[in-house]
Design brief:
The structure holds three protein chains of three kinds.
Chain A: H1 9-12, H2 34-39, H3 44-74, H4 84-87, H5 97-133, H6 141-163, H7 192-220, H8 233-265, H9 293-327, H10 334-348, H11 363-375, H12 377-391, H13 400-423, H14 425-431, H15 435-465, E1 467-468, H16 471-497, H17 517-533, H18 535-547, E2 549-550
Antiparallel strand pairs in A: 1-2
Chain B: H1 3-30, H2 46-78, H3 93-123, E1 138-143, E2 146-151, E3 164-167, E4 169-173, E5 178-184, E6 189-193, E7 198-202, E8 208-212, E9 218-224, E10 236-242, H4 244-261
Helix pairs in contact in B: 1-2, 2-3
Chain C: H1 10-13, H2 32-61, H3 68-71, H4 74-100, H5 103-133, H6 142-173, H7 183-208
The chains are: A mainly alpha, B alpha+beta, C mainly alpha.
Chain lengths: ~600, ~260, ~210
Amino acid sequence: MSTHAHAPAHEAKPLGIDPPGTTHVSHEHHEFGFLRKYIFSTDHKVIGLQFLFTGLVMLLLGGLMAMAIRWQLAYPWTEMPVLGRLLFPATGGVTTPEGYTMLFTMHGTLMIFFVVIPLLTGTFGNYLIPLMLGAPDMAFPRLNMLGYWFWWPGIFCILLSFGAEGGGPAAGWTAYPPLSTIESAAPGSNWGQNWMLISLTFVGVSSMMGAVNYVTTIVKMRAPGMTFFRMPLSIWSLLVAALLQLFALPVLTAATFMQLFDRLFDAGFFTPTGVIINNVSPEAIGQAAGGHPLLWQHLFWFYAHPAVYILVVPSMGFVSDILAVHGRKPIFGYKPMVYSICGIAGLGFIVWGHHMFMSGMNPSVGLVFMTATIMIALPSAVKVFNWLGTLWGARIQVTTPMLFAVSFVAMFIIGGLSGIWMASTPVDIYIHDTYIIVAHFHYVVFAGSMMAIFAAIYHWFPKMFGRAMNETLGKIHFVGTFIALNGVFYMMHQLGLAGLMRRTADPYAYETYAHLQPMNQFISWCAFALLGWQIFFVLNFFGSMVWGKRVGRNPWNACSLEWEAPSPPGHGNFDKPLAVYHGPYEYGVPDAPKDFVPQTQKAVGFQVHA
Amino acid sequence: MSSLKHFLLRAVITLLFLAVPILGVWTFVKAEEWGLWFPPTYSTYGPSIDFLFDVIMWMVAVTFVGTELLLVWFFFRYSKKDATRATYTHGNHTLEMVWTAIPALLLIFVAFSQMKAWSTVKINFPEDGPYTVAKPLMEIYASQFDWRVRYPDAQGNFEGADVIEVPYDITVPADTKVVLRLKSRDVLHSFFVPVFRLKQDAVPGMEIPVWFEATRPGDYDLICAELCGWGHYKMAGKIHVLPKDEFASWLAKQRENLYAKD
Amino acid sequence: MSEALAAYDPAVDAPAHHHPVYDYDSGPPVERGKFAIWLFLATEIMFFSGLIGAYIVLRSAAKSWPDPQERLAVDITAFNTFLLITSSWTMVKAVFAAKAGERGKLLAWLAATIAIGASFVSIQVYEYIQLIHEGAIPKIDIFWSTFYAMTGFHGTHVVVGVIWLSCVWFKALGGGYTVRNNLGVELAGLYWHFVDLVWVLLFTIVYLF
């Protein structure tokens, strides 16, 4: 790490295109000890990496739970190898019915709140936003550090919930009341559900701190010349995701508090009058009633549907950037891409009711939600067409990040198209809560966002560690992952069409489903292979930190600002003044000396796009 | 990298991407043969739902195959080692308009084509038949983890000595518009009959009507489709569809049994 | 086309030593802190919208809703509302004093705001104690569930505000604010006004209607 001296302000002044109000501040700073440098660091890069490592560990945990679920679906009520003794010691490794409900509840909660959202916004939001904008750090570095450390009580509580007396939360990640609010409804979950709700509150506060920081940084700290429409699409998508978090998450926080009130103080937000649970009426034992179970669903999905877009919008941005860099071609339709991200986010706030078509909500309202939901396919389609337009006429470099990025597009098409069925209310009557839904959201979140996360890790690893990941191992990782994931998720569509319900511990008890077991076994073995195959990623990831090829500032010959900084960037990120002259996608520029023109390079003797 | 190695790499990856549309379509074609397709439909509105599924399926299939093949072709064609630079373009306004407008029209068409079927199933309940929302054939009372069925007495009351109560088994007449009232005793459940293409959550504190007209006598699975606790997986029921006259005599017999018990 | 991964070249890739930190300001002419506090207040608005929305839904769906005037001490709370509105005025005075660089006045007006805020909380706590003494707790019925959730979260916000303003007061005591640097006072003020505004809304829908 370089040491920086205090320099007079005029030295820092970049080349002449300052918008009014630009200030150049120099801070004094010094070498920190280990603890301040790597643990309680306020440096956005360190915080990004902390989110990355923590998120990957949580990914492994969530993945192991998926394996346990798959074992039960393939070989119900048999002894589960390896994991069984750990998860179900009392039964000798055989899944219990209530254990199964806890497993899929925790799998969903972990993957959404502790893996995909933190990996996308926590890791890459932190790492990329200041670097791509030319800023020395986030607007509020200490708040940023606090955001990461507020995540930890969340992790602690969610792990505690799994070990709580009587077991973990068992009402699904959606936590629908009254199953989630009345303790006797799910006999296992005493404090499990409480810990989960408290955990979500911590995660929410953590995300909110991050989101305030991201939006402020993006609006206030762009380098001279970096107008909004010169920002890379990664930044646009992170901005939109942060806005979604700011406006949607507080509603979930309010709702979780109400559920906690119901559970801890016997309040009655979600308990209707006249229910009898386990032969006891809640009112008779002094709990309040008069609430409404659908109220929770409305509040929950008002958050959770925008959250679905938080899970995928940033990956769209990363993939756009990676396609342009490794395709050596400008992004096709930059502004339509920006508008469609905004369109997805805007519409995302008025479609939550499509999760509730079968819930007993007024069916006429369902028609309004259906129309809005079907229209959200439009901006998604525009994005796909623009990605295809970007690939057309490109000079594709067959690199690992590119393979993962292209596969994101291929998989997102599947996840997006199957959504049209779900949005259509009459069709949804049949397929609601079946495995086709499971296929749909795993195609978006695993085959989509996870692949984009892998692409982003391979792409920005050289910037993070100054070394590149191994290409051969990366390609092996890609091929196996791609085959296995399709093996896992594709046939779930057909299982859903056969009517198979999700969240069913032993579907084969039904006559209707008895013949579906062989296909479930195939899927499970693909799932085991998918997890096992990640060993290539783990080896490559850790090995490359030590033995990877040493690379310089701009190993991929990319245009955006993060590649102007040293790899890895030191404290304060940039060691030279920056000025931005054009957009981030000037690849294949005719007559330019090289096939790319960095954003900091003025076009002299050739033309670039304004 | 040698050019042969590069070609092999491109070929392998291209085949991998190409397998997606090919196997994707093939598994859908084969699905029925493998028993991984819709169960038969035995309700009057079932075929209209299947039809809408098919309409969307064809649109989705064409888009899926089209976009995936383009992707595969672009990947193969433009990953060739080439000394020239990529096509320098930032987009095309006309193209953007075209590929915004056409999907928009298609999607609006999809949205509007759904409305009638949805109204039929969920909004416009039968008013002309023997059973109506106000006077349903039976009340279904879902609870952890069973379905209880109540047939009203002759006056249509669901309380009192003459109410017939049956657990798990729902007996209904064929070729009759049947209206049921769905209630829940404790948590959320969902009334799902795959062969009728009917699903509706049962919500505690609410009375939700559902209706169907079964077209074929037989015994069908009733499945709980909303997580309702540890026993959710075994909350099974049966729907017995009897020919109209048989149903009448069945119901009469139930009443007799009821009085015999007294 | 060259090899995909460019190799390390010390001539261009080595980090430069001894350079300043380049920090640019691109945005609208508003301080970062103020921009961020508005974003934060937006999240707060969504939070209370969730609570108030739930209240409206539950109340309109209920078969009968008790008359709040019979259950709650409206006159005391009306006085309390008046207090809190007054504190908004004293807060405005404090911000003016901070901008004028008048430390004595700033301390005095801040102290007034803190005192009024603390009395508001005390009166609310008194009301709670009375109610709980009478057995009115969240589990009695949905009216009390919503009442405690909404006023409780608002009260928590007032407590946070009082603590925040006290920190500002101590900083002002040490001369932490000047004519040029008084953002801290303004940010606390913005939050305080928001908390007041929410209370006016809550008082209207929970106590009056």
